Amino acid sequence: MIYGKARPERPMTLLWLQAGSCGGCTMSVLDNGAQGWPRELRSFGIDLLWHPSLSEESGVEAIAILDSVAAGETPLDILCIEGSILRGPSGTGLCNRLAGTGRTMLEWVRRLAPLAEYCVAVGTCASYGGIHAASPDPAEACGLQYEGTASGGALGGSYRSRSGMPVINVAGCAPHPGWIMETIAALKMGDFDERDLDRLGRPKFYAKTLAHHGCERNEYYEFKASAEKLSDLGCMMEHLGCKATQAVGDCNQRGWNGGGSCTHGGFSCIACTSPGFEETNGFLETPKIGGIPVGLPLDMPKAWFVALAALSKSATPERVRTNATSDRVIRAPKRTGNSSE
Q1: Phi/psi of residue 113, each to 5°?
Q2: In which band, very low, low, confident or very high, does the pLDDT at 287 lie, cut at 50, 70 and 90?
Q3: I need a surface site. Which of 89, 131, 181, 212 has the fewest CB within 10 A?
């Protein structure tokens, strides 16, 4: 593919399949666009061939669509897979069959992925294995091209779609609706190639920033004024397991449903865009060694963080210290002499 080359004017086709999934990624993408996701797809010139939750076709009609694609009679431009690929038991894939077809979802994915111009893993389950891959993983769950951080997965590390691209991992549990639709739109416009992916196959337009950026609790983070319980206003990194300084995503810079995010809602970031997040021990408690959080900011050496934390705590305004352990603002900013506290 030539980078930036416009796509043909004919509608692109998109097929969406659900593997081992809770349906949360579908619920997320339905929030995209004021006119509704199916209409937005049409406005971009994208023909939704079939979606198990949204399409009218079911039973033999749905199977006929899949068979037509598999036979090469219907061109497949974008294959979207939602959910983990369940390879169990013993690599047979029988944990997850596509009803009425006599085939496992593992077979369908391996059959259709080589026919697609682009293959998109929608959500962390399809990207890396996700929740279903948590130990002891009796279903042998994996992502399309990754098993956790290891290259491989259901399609193998060498897989490339017809465009020459690896699987595009729109990771998140669930991913922001904008991440999904903007990826699809970029593919339609021919403005996306392998250089637009990070080292784990995630689109850089959202993976080049941290969930921490834009967090409304950043003043508390800067002064290391920490919340002690979930209803507190302070930073949740030190005690409540927040991983926003380690997790990629622009979650706090673009609102969900008009304005929400995990930390905005008072809940710790669980780094759901990252492989292996499902193995976290105690999502709401920060593991520590010698009183120092184990999970430190991605781009900060431990010695720097310890020194900065000590300096910041010594300079914390009383207003910030007081409000950090309260569920509402107790002390408002007030100018005192040359001070703005």
Answers
A1: -55, -40
A2: confident
A3: 89
